[in-house]
Amino acid sequence: MSKLLMNLRNVPDDEADDVRAMLDAQRIAFYETRPSIWGISAGGIWVTEDAAFADARRAMDDYQQQRAARARAEYAAAKRAGTAETFITLLRADPVRVVLSVLGILFALGLVTLPFFLLRG
Question: Which residues cross the membrane (predicted)?
Answer without folding.
Answer: 98-119
